[in-house]
Amino acid sequence: MRFFGVLSVCLLLIGCCVCQYQPTWESIDSRPVPEWFDQAKFGIFIHWGVFSVPSFGSEWFWWFWQGQKWPSYVKFMEQNYPPGFTYTDFAPQFTAEFFDPNERVDIFASSGARYIVLTTKHHEGFTMWGSKYSWTWNAVSVGPKRDLVNDIATALRTRTDLRLGLYHSLFEWFNPMFKSDSDNKFKTNVFPTAKTLPELYELINTYKPDLLWSDGDGDAPDQYWNSTGFLAWLYNQSPVRETVVTNDRWGYGSICNHGGYYTCTDRYNPGHLVKHKWENCLSIDQRSWGYRREAKLSDYLSTEQLIASLVETVSCGGNLLLNVGPTHDGRIVPIFEERLRQMGQWLKVNGEAIYNSSAWRVQNDTATPGVWYTMNKQSGAIYAIFLSWPSDGIVVLTDPVVSAAKTQVALLGSGSVTWQSTTPTGLKVKLPPLTPSQMPWSSAWTLRLTGAQ
Fold first, then answer.
1. Where is the Glycoside hydrolase family 29 N-terminal domain (predicted)?
2. Closest to 264 in 3D by CA, of 316, 325, 202
3. Do 426 and 397 touch, CB atoms closer than 8 A?
4. Domain extents in the chain
5. Residue 112 burial (CB < 10 Å; 0-12/13-18/19+)?
6. CA distances from 344 to 43, 53, 286, 303, 335 (A)
7. Looking at domain 371-450, what is its CATH homologous superfamily?
8. In angstroms, how far is CA 84 from the centroid of its own chain?
9. Per-residue confidence of the chain (453 residues) as pLDDT tens digits?
10. How far, CA to CA in Å, does 148 sit from each of 130, 145, 244, 419?
């Protein structure tokens, strides 16, 4: 009876065509991740919202201040704001007066990223668009008084090198409807019916993103959220059904088990090949996803560390989603911009080893540490990315099978290099004696091997 009912709805909505995906995890999980996502390899995460106003601690400010009453957050409020000040009083200060969407998209594009993921609503419940389901707790009614999602989407679609992704939190910390459902042990579902699901449909139909990044289940199971029902609609009837990519955060127990690509945990980086497509979400600020005014230089990952994470992630079959947190007035602070632009400079030289690449038969060299492999299936080229320049100028690659007659080796950004085979497999590559100004980059260099196995 359930199958018949679902099929009837599908026939009604899309004429004589039968729904390809049913609202079960078995069916939803059978959908391949669209190819564009695997080819992209690198995206930018943007955590921006009312939490950007206090810009202290983390984007979980409201929860740690009033939910957990952490002493450092309580003290911060007592020292800087008058008695009776509430979290909603921050919203008018979320002004975004320096937010120029075209300029911001240019910065994101300069990083070499192929997609962005903007927070449209975090766990605080504030929507970055004028959602019909947010009452006045949104960026059109208060603060910027503009549709920030539309601003980004419009600016992005003037370009051909970036795809739009939207982040959306399923739950909200202090929403009375969610708290009531939680008290009822999720045997009632007032909140997802009245708030979460209407917002999701609204986002997809209005902005037509290529990626939907779901987050925050509030310990509620996927049945409470009707996740499989929504995903069946998304994959069968939505305006982005052919291209949309989704992640795995669709209810308690679904992460790393169900959905589209896997995120598993924040900063997930297994260090080995994972069969299912996955993504490493990494923030430049190691202690927060949102902007923090109290951050120290040591809290920020260096460009060298970020490049190493990108290389390792792609070698193991994943994508890197690198996070920045804009300020309450819409700025990308210089240290974030510097990191993004430097990533782009590295990718201009080494991008052929990253974009459209595939995992090779081994990921890191079995004998030489700090060497990671990728390959291009179309050309057959193998890429060996080494993270440190050897003092003797010799890079030993243990795993490639080479031929004196067929194999050619080049240092990307420089040119051909000399090499000699080792036994039973592998080769020694003699790097050119380059001056600092001749170096293609200051860290992480790529050898391209053609005619090797």
1. 20-352
2. 316
3. yes
4. 31-353, 371-450
5. buried
6. 12, 29, 21, 11, 14
7. Golgi alpha-mannosidase II (2.60.40.1180)
8. 37
9. 333 344 444 544 444 346 899 999 999 999 999 999 999 999 999 999 999 999 999 999 999 999 999 999 999 999 999 999 999 999 999 999 999 999 999 999 999 999 999 999 999 999 999 999 999 999 999 999 999 999 999 999 988 889 999 999 999 999 999 999 999 999 999 999 999 999 999 999 999 999 999 999 999 999 999 999 999 999 999 999 999 999 999 999 999 999 999 999 999 999 999 989 999 999 999 999 999 999 999 999 999 999 999 999 999 999 999 999 999 999 999 999 999 999 999 999 999 999 999 999 999 999 999 999 999 999 999 999 999 999 999 999 999 999 988 999 999 999 999 999 998 889 999 999 988 888 888 889 999 999 998
10. 9, 9, 21, 54
Matching residue, tokens 């919203």: 91
| Per-position DSSP letters for 333-367, written without gaps between them | -HHHHHHHHHHHHHHHHHGGGTTT-B--S-SB-SS
Cα gap 302→320, rounded to integer Å = 15
CATH fold for domain 31-353: TIM Barrel (3.20.20)
Spatial separation of the C-alpha atoms in residues 118 and 200, rounded to whole Å: 14
What gap in Å lies between CA 400 and CA 387, rounded to an integer? 18
Q: How far is Cα 407 from Cα 419, in angstroms, rounded to an integer?
A: 10
Bridge partners (DSSP) listed for residue 445: 386
Alpha helices in 114-175 (DSSP H): 148-156
Q: How far is CA 298 from the centre of its chain?
A: 23
- The answer to whether the beta carbons of residues 241 and 208 sit under 8 Å apart is no
From 81, 77, 103, 85, select the one nearest 158 (Cα to Cα). 103
Q: Are 356 and 39 contacting, i.e. CB atoms less than 8 angstroms apart?
A: yes
User: In which element (H, E) is residue 309 found?
Assistant: helix 303-315
Secondary structure of residue 241 in the 3-state scheme = coil
CA distance 336 to 299: 12
Q: Report which residue type is found at 266.
A: D
Q: Answer whether 426's CB lies under 8 Å from 405's CB.
A: no
CA-closest candidate to residue 352, choices 219, 447, 250: 447
- How far, in Å, are 37, 101, 108, 290, 332 from residue 98 at the CA level? 31, 10, 16, 17, 10
